[in-house]
Amino acid sequence: MKILPEELSELRHKPNRALPIKWAVKGVVKDLKYARDLSFYLLKREKADERPLVRLYEKAISPRYDRPVCLFCSFDKDSVVRENVYYYLNALMLAGFDIVFISSSSMISGSDLEKLSRCCIAIINRENKGYDFYGWKTALEKYPEYREHSGLLLANDSVLGPLFSIDNIIARLEGSEADIVGMTDSFRFYPHLQSYFLYCKKKAVSSDEFLRFFAEIEVLEFKLAIVRRYEVGFSRFLSRRFRLAALYSLGQVLAPTDYHQRPLQWVESTFHLWKPLITEFGFPFLKKSMLTRRGVSLGEVSAVLAEAGSSYETEILNDWMLPRG
Q: Which molecular function terms from Gene Ontology are attached (predicted)?
């Protein structure tokens, strides 16, 4: 469904979507706190314009330009590529994507480099600066051949899955009337596509707007500024010319649910509505933050996956969930 101001207006004016005063006050407080924290960050940061060091750029399997390319960002504090990441990469490859793997871990081991070379057309290891948007910028610079591919997917390892087959995902993405297609959207700050999965059709990728957006990305380490400037900013800037849509739009997900705990602008479907997303809509991903931030147990996840008929085995998460000795 297309992200449009009228959709936001329609949902806002439903009686159960009325914005309580407490949420309006909360929004003002958070905005003031953000302005304060951003000011402090900008004052104290050093060498903000220093480009992250690219430690490794290695080409692997030959690209096929008739396939879309996925720029996949990954980070692990132990410099390990986890099994859940390989599962995702293999699913993307089998679905029809060429993959450029961008790691901001301290290093990539020889064994991981060998495994990655079987499913990726290029492998990048870069200094951990600037989060995923700078990682994608690095890949666009190091692999300019992205322009030759039939489309471009920006993705990262912040999700687990696919929980269901994504064999037909390229057909679904290309079949959308939109020029840029995400999995989910959000109305926080401004209507936007969430950045863990952003598919850009060739028309958008080859545009001056796309090139300009990434050319102007700077190294920022303040995560909320990344969200506002780059995640929200990407949709806001590109929507001036291109049509944007989410395969699992918030309006679509909210329609059959009875969720009234917070107003629209404060609902994140992958966080607050993760169960109906999976069981009722067959949504193929689970945010890792559900386990790390919200404390959802593997048992609860397994029960939801069983109810939804997913074949994803949670045992694949053992090397990620369990502490390494």
A: transferase activity
Packed helices 131-142 and 208-215: angle between N→C axes, nearest 10 degrees: 120
Q: Two tokens at 150?
A: 């039939």
Q: How far apart are CA 89 and CA 97, in angstroms?
A: 9
Q: What integer pLDDT is reported at residue 259 of this predicted model?
A: 81
Q: What is the pLDDT of residue 186?
A: 96
CA distance 131 to 194: 15
Tell me: cis bond preceding 162? Omega within 30 of 0 counts.
Answer: yes
Closest residue by Cα to residue 158 from 135, 179, 180, 174: 135
CB atoms within 10 A of CB 25: 10
Q: Report residue 71 as tokens.
A: 């720029």
Q: For residue 292, is pLDDT > 50?
A: yes
Instruction: Name the DSSP class of 117.
Output: T
Ordered domains of the chain (ranges, CATH): 49-249 (3.90.550)
Report angle CA 68, 74, 79 to the nearest 5 degrees: 140
Q: What is the mean pLDDT of residues 18-33?
A: 72
* SS3 annotation, 16-49: HHCCCHHHHHHHHHHHHHHHHHHHHHHHHCCCCC
Residue 238 has what DSSP assignment? H
Encoded amino acid at 167, one letter: D
Output the CA torsion 168→173→176→180 (10° steps).
170
Helix (H, G, I), strand (E, B) or coil at 290: helix
